[in-house]
Amino acid sequence: MGIFIKNPETERKVRELANRRGSTLTAAIDQALDQALKTEVSAPRAKKTLEEIRAATDRFRRATGLDKLPSTPVSKAEWDALWPTGIPEIDNL
User: Fold this and answer.
1) Is the whole-model pTM more than 0.85?
2) Nearest to 67 by CA among 77, 76, 75, 57
């Protein structure tokens, strides 16, 4: 099965890699993909812990000045007013 590369810059890079390695285009692509997959497996995406997420949120709030704004809890009535259901019996409670 063939691969059609539409991007001229990508094709140029593959040809350059194959030329430098003295290999075919297929071999160059295969080796590059093997290397990329090996790197992906050995360095899995980091999962953020709750503590890291809270620390990042705190840094963001300080950087943007949100930490200086007053923080008051939203009442149930205020919250409900944000989300009308379209059902008068519920929205008018």
Assistant:
1) no
2) 57
